[in-house]
Amino acid sequence: MSGPTIRDVAARAGVSVATVSRFLSDPDKVARATREKVEAAMSELGWRPNMTARSLVHGRTGLYGVIVPDVANPFFGELATGMSLAASSLGVQLVLLHTDLSEELDVAALHLCRQHRLDAVIYTSGSLGPAHRTAVAQLGRPVVLAATYDPEDTLPGILVDSQVGGKMGARHLLSLGHRRIALVGGPAADPIAAGPRWTGWRLELAAAGCLPPPHWQLEVGWKQQYGYQAAIALLREPIPPTAILCGSDVLALGVLAAAADLGVSVPHDLSVVGFDGLNLASLWRPSLTTLSQPIGDIGREAVRLAVSLTEGHAAPPTRWLTPELVVRGSTSAAVR
Predict the structure, then answer these.
(1) Full-model pTM
(2) CA 104 to CA 108: how far, in whole Å?
(3) Distance from C-alpha of 132 to C-alpha of 104, rounded to nearest angstrom
(4) What architecture is the 162-293 domain classified under in CATH?
């Protein structure tokens, strides 16, 4: 008994065979609602494009490299999940390359993608230095940036506007009456995520006349333990902050753990705001107020764009998204 065909997919989705074919070759030219119908039909029927036939015709492998800086960070796990869903529906496979926050390993991963003739690369690992650019030029394959961007605007990317998100988080705490607000974020020199968030925070707080002192502006690594250590120091101040803005949900979860260990009530004595919108943050207690990114959507769109570029279509400009303020249990009005 033969398996499902492209005609079966079209019938299940309620579209024409031509529409399914167009979705496979150039998903950006298919309306989002239609794409979702086709993807659902393919999933329900268990149908996948014949990659062997496609590779013989087009000279491609159907393999796409995904360069990830930290697989232990839930953000990149959710990003990769979105990518894998899109890759499955488009009949391509992902090769995950973990670089452990190392620029040297980033460059080595790009060289590895070239050596193994991967069709395209999705890069999520942050800024691009001269060695990265040389490796990209040597790669000779499409490169898509996910949750990062190219300041020189030579590579297409999909990400949220972190400076706008930083302003939104600060504005939320100010609207609740907080004036003693501390900042805990990644290295401000990072031009992709941490730097713009610092800029947004500082602009909004300075305009309100309550920019915190330097020792309340802590630049740390992106791991949870650094958020914990920073919060311990801040909450042991003689007059501690009533709120802490965090550069990521992972850092914010470290802050919540520190508050719990010191017996500081959240949100009665301390309000905490994160950034990213991780699924994990909604399950914490209290649940975390955060600036939410559409992480899965960024991953899915990055794969679709990579496929489109591989098919020879022109690269669109960098796509900037606006984060959403999701208010949960970790923020409340300042106690006067």
Answers:
(1) 0.80
(2) 6
(3) 9
(4) 3-Layer(aba) Sandwich (3.40)
